[in-house]
Amino acid sequence: MSPSIDLPGPRPAIVARLGTAQTLAWASTYYLPAILAAPMARDLGTTVPTVLAAFSLALVVSALVGPRAGHTIDRRGGRPVLMITSLVFAAGLAGLGLCQGLPGLFVAWVVLGLGMGSGLYEAAFATLVRLYGRQARSGITGITLIAGFASTVGWPLSAWLESRYGWRATCGAWAALHLLLGLPLNAWLPRVGAGPAPAQAPAAPAAEPSAAASPTPAPRDEWRAMLVLSWVFAATLFTATALATHLPRLMQAAGASVATALLVGALIGPAQVAARLLEFGFLRRLHPLWVARLATALHPLGAGLLLLVGAAWAPVLGLLHGAGNGLLTITKGTLPLALFGSAGYGARQGWLMAPARVTQALAPVAFGLVLDRLQGHALWVTAGLGVSALAALMWLPTKTAPR
């Protein structure tokens, strides 16, 4: 019997280790270009879009790596994969800090893309599912609660290090943190035996009967559900990345003042954390499919209010968009678990998220072009993507949801 069967549920210490390691991983990769792209471009004699293109390449690489990394976690558990990923992150960041031209820049980001594909949320979620099966839902929420502060920690720290020591030393500092903090945290994760994860984990606690009791879809329904979730994740991640890149400009194009645009950005982070706390409490009693439907509806609602009523509703968009993002981050882990079970979870997550990583890579440039052409009306595009994601979720077989 696999060791995952013997564990009673996600242990707070394990969730804390994974959450802290995820905070480090996100802060030193995904949130790094926002602070270091400009000084990198100046020092290397190139442009900021070129640096961002290298980052986009890393996202494409992560999409290619994800399914294989997830399959390995299914077979051998997350501990060895995440330990290797810590070394890959350290190597990529060290290479980034030492690069002297564009070839070195792109190679370093390719290495970081390998780490991102095997060491961000999907890998952490798969690690918990390999250990706890269907009981991993609360642990997935816990990881996102901790790592939700990655930008809060990462941006100020990167900015402070860059201002005092330069961008190269900043990359070196993050590389050292992966060796001194991330690697030990991942090494302290439980070992599991080699072999496939059990198809069914222990029965879920009484507080989560709906997530445990939902039946596994038939093969045809499973393929349909896989396609639906791939589209939902791709559409919503495109919107999240587009707004993260262009939010101040987009708000001003929609008629908001500079101060209001900054306020909207400031509201997104707290709204994400608040929504995750809500999921950890009240929404935890709902099937993840209903939580996902709620999450995909929030951005279109906020965008519609701003576009139809006026720019005074821009802060409401910030709150609703942030809350939706916070819930979607969780449902990307919990919804596949509820629909398909724990067997093969890691590999399935890799395939489900691969299209999303590609759209994420394209979002900054693609939405920038849309914004140039449509100005504030570009929000209709993101709202339309949200509505399409909601419609796709409504199309899923209702038999997978609780009565």
TrEMBL record:
The keyword Cell membrane applies. It is found in: Cell membrane. Pfam families: MFS_1. Keywords: Cell membrane, Membrane, Transmembrane, Transmembrane helix. It comes from the Bacteria. This is MFS transporter. The keyword ATP-binding does not apply. The chain crosses the membrane at residues 50-69, 81-98, 104-128, 140-161, 225-247, 253-278, 290-313, 377-396. It is a multi-pass membrane protein. Residues 14-401 form the Major facilitator superfamily (MFS) profile domain. Its main location: membrane. InterPro entries: MFS (IPR011701), MFS_dom (IPR020846), MFS_Efflux_Transporters (IPR050189), MFS_trans_sf (IPR036259).
